Amino acid sequence: MHHFEYRDGVLFAEDVSVTALAEEYGTPLYIYSAATFRRHFKAFDSAFKGLDHLTCYSVKANSNLSILKLLAAEGAGMDIVSGGELFRALKAGVSPEKIVYSGVGKRDSEIRDALKAGILMFNVESVAELERINSVAGELGMKANVSFRINPDVDPQTHPYISTGMKENKFGLDIENSLKAYQRAAEMDHVEPVGMDCHIGSQLTSIEPFLEALDKLLHFNSQLKKMGIIIQYLDLGGGLGIAYDAEEPPHPSEFGQALSEKLQGLPLKVIFEPGRVIAGNAGILVTKVVYTKSNPTKNFLIVDAGMNDLIRPSLYGSYHRIGEVELSGRQHKPFDVVGPICESGDFLARDRELPAVDQGERLVVYSAGAYGFTMASNYNTRPRACELLVDGDTVHVARKRETYEDLVANEL
Ligand SMILES: *Cc1c(COP(=O)(O)O)cnc(C)c1O
């Protein structure tokens, strides 16, 4: 139950008609369900209730302030990957001691801001970064808590662009170099190695790769102990997948149980960084058919949402379920659902069986709550969409639709 359901043939977001919202706010339109966000967060977080843990929502999945506030109110910490995300998390009222900072390219100014804010720890991805953190912390007369992101070299069996824990990926440190990095950190005056971290990829639909990575990290931890380095935090990253189509990812409770069995009794606080599993199915994208057209080989639905609004199909070949906002009962035909952008890669779906909808009618693109709006751009000088957060029968404008003036505001 995702709180996006038909009532008398009309799609509702919780207790509000999507048709009514599209009429009032226009399309393309992102609609998020507050109840779904809360439910997903609770389902994930409570899966680890027997363990000392902290669930740090991955801000990049959906970074709207209203979403961050909602999750912070549920007790979420945050996983950030930039100074901009730090700014958002703090602005949303997240306690800094619940913020972890990941990412391969942290700049001095970003490190400084995070230190001043008092975040829980940096997930460090290279020795060069460790040196920078030590030096920036030194300038501030501080000591930075660090974890190293260890690349356990496991195959998460997901799309190569969202696979991050294999030897050839740019992320983290391989196991051999990690030992040297901890040794180096232990010698430094302004860093304190407090944890271990990994994040092996996104949209994982099986538990095995997580367990494999965990085994490698626990083994690594015993090597650290022998070196006299005692850590307190074990950050296992995010990556749990969702059903976009026919995938059958493990339920968070199964995931929690499998991991908890291995983690029970260890003197470590476990950190998770889920993004997609919280946000993905908590949002939809509503779009209107601008034109229909056919040629001898294809039927096209040209819609008003393009790759600038939702790039996942273009970037990863991702599948997003598409349906009518108002059920018509018409016969199905194969369509390419394409946007208005001047790129052949601008599509939301290809060869998709859909009811033969007409110009002016609306479609819903499901599972658009994660990596949807956050990856949106202004390509083709298109204002980014409006974002609404529906809570029961209450509608909150989480982000106004951009105007043309907004688009040129910084151009001098
Ligand atoms: C993107 C990312 C996440 C979240 O991944 P999901 O697949 O959305 O759960 C967590 N941690 C790090 C370091 C990331 O880069």
How would you portray this structure in words?
- With 412 residues, the protein is α/β, with parallel strands linked by helices.
- The protein contains 12 helices and 21 strands.
- The chain has helices at 18-25, 34-46, 65-73, 83-91, 108-117, 127-139, 175-187, 208-226, 252-263, 276-279, 312-316, 404-408; strands spanning 4-7, 10-13, 16-17, 29-33, 53-58, 77-80, 99-101, 121-124, 144-151, 173-174, 191-197, 233-235, 269-272, 283-294, 299-303, 322-324, 332-338, 347-355, 362-365, 386-391, 394-399.
- Strands 4, 14, 15, 16, 17, 18, 19, 20 and 21 form a 9-stranded mixed sheet that branches. Strands 5-6-7-8-9-11-12-13 form an 8-stranded parallel beta barrel, surrounded by 4 helices. The protein has a 3-stranded antiparallel sheet with strand order 1-2-3.
- Helix 5 (108-117) crosses helix 6.
- The longest helix has 19 residues, at 208-226.
- The protein is elongated, with a radius of gyration of 22 Å.
- The mean pLDDT is 96.
- Residues 58, 60-61, 79, 81, 102, 199, 202, 237-240, 273-277, 370 line the site of pyridoxal-5'-phosphate.
Kindly summarize this structure in a few lines.
With 412 residues, the chain is an alpha/beta fold. The protein is 29% helix and 26% strand. It has 12 helices and 21 strands.
Proportion of residues in helical segments: 25-40%
Which fold name is given in CATH as the topology of the largest domain? TIM Barrel
Overall structural class, as computed from helix and strand content, comes to alpha/beta
What profile does the largest beta sheet have? Answer: 9 strands, mixed
Shape: elongated
Summed over residues and divided by their number, the pLDDT gives a mean of 96
